[in-house]
Amino acid sequence: MLLFKNPFLRIVDKKKSTTTVDTGFYVNFKKLGEKILKKYIIFFFICLFTLISCKGETNSITLKSKHINRIKLEEFPQVLSEKSHFNINFELNDENAIKTPIKDYYYYVLKEKKSDIIEAKLYLRNEFMDTNVSLIALQGNKLKELSVSSESDWYKTMEIPLPKGSIIEIDLRIRWDANGSKELILFPILDNFPHQYSGLGASVIRLFVTNSKIDNTHTIDIQKHIEIEGGIRTIPALRWIEQNNESIPLVTEEQRNYATNFYDKLELSPISYTTNADILYLDNKGDVEILDSVSLNQGEQIILNFEESKMKKFISNNGRKKFLLILNNRNEAMYYDYNAVNEGLLPHTRSFQQVIEIYPVQ
């Protein structure tokens, strides 16, 4: 016969004619309650510490009208073509950095060598259709947080509403590591431009930002460019291909391109010189990963094969817009390349930053 202790049962001791209460359960219950209370207190302080440590940094901000300055066409700091549907321009503030021209190109020297914030103005123009622009900033291969002058918090990405006909200016701030890479990259991701990222530059901005002026006595390897298909090719075109080396078929739905079959091969067209390039993965939520480095030999077509498991992850349709960014002449090499063009040592710049979208499979 099993006996179960009822915590609410009063036991009467007939011999002593007194009423006693079994307190064993209550003692155990009290100890159990103390343990649970301690766990909740510890959990509370862990959550509180996490909130405090993460204060000021969240994933994204959608800019409102108070963050955006609407400007006139003549205030846009570059000559605009009537054929161009989208334009982006970016300039560091004079208070923050010195714009140092090297003839046709320029770079920036920070006024404070230990500066941890870059202040700049971002200019956008849209003449195509209503869209949102997700902005990502990189220092070299690392994502850098963004903010605007009227905000105290920092964000991985920034979403900018950009209706058709908009010409705007934004006071932008970017976190910066003075001891890190000297390469600042801005990548605007447009929601409703399905063919914007088909293997070309796609309005990616890459600037050389340093703490001091550069020594121009550095020499670079001056290669003789060869002609390819009747011309000089300085930038590789990118395209996704199937096993038969034909372009993958795409379908467009709601301003978004989709692939119809699995794919894992990327073709880079021949260029007129030899260089090394880095391959970065990034998406509109601010995830960044360096995948590989590749040698591009003069006049040779390159086909890259990606791991099947990696590509299955990339092409999954999880709502994110995903891209490969392929770029060469990192850091000082970009500066020396521009300077060689200015000095007449090279006929064309050999620095590029090409983007291709990773299309989800429908």
Key structural traits:
Immunoglobulin-like, five-stranded antiparallel sheet, eight-stranded mixed sheet, mainly beta, 3 helices
How would you describe this structure to a colleague?
The N and C termini lie far apart (65 Å). The strands form 6 sheets. Strands 3, 6, 7, 9, 10, 12, 14 and 15 form an 8-stranded mixed β-sheet that branches. Strands 4, 5, 8, 11 and 13 form a 5-stranded antiparallel β-sheet that branches. Strands 21-20-23-24 form a 4-stranded antiparallel β-sheet, with no helix packed on it. The protein is mainly beta and 362 residues long. Mean pLDDT is 82; it is low at 1-23 and 46-56. It has 3 helices and 24 strands. The protein folds into 2 domains: 59-210, Immunoglobulin-like, CATH 2.60.40; 238-358, Sandwich (Immunoglobulin-like). The radius of gyration is 29 Å and the shape is globular. The protein has helices spanning 24-54, 308-314, 332-342; strands spanning 10-13, 18-21, 57-62, 69-70, 86-92, 97-102, 105-110, 117-126, 131-139, 142-144, 146-148, 154-162, 167-175, 183-190, 205-210, 238-241, 250-253, 256-259, 265-268, 275-283, 288-296, 302-305, 322-328, 353-358.
CATH superfamily of the largest domain: C2 domain
Work out the helix count.
3
Instruction: Give me the count of strands.
Output: 24
Q: Tell me the span between the first and last alpha carbons.
A: 65 Å
Computed Rg: 29 Å
Order of helices and strands: EEHEEEEEEEEEEEEEEEEEEEEHEHE
CATH class annotation of the largest domain: Mainly Beta
Proportion of beta-strand residues: 35-45%
Helix proportion range:
10-25%
User: How many separate structural domains?
Assistant: 2
Q: Which regions have little confidence, pLDDT < 50, spanning 5+ residues?
A: 1-23, 46-56
Report the principal-axis shape.
Answer: globular
CATH topology of the largest domain: Immunoglobulin-like
Mean pLDDT, to the nearest integer, reads: 82
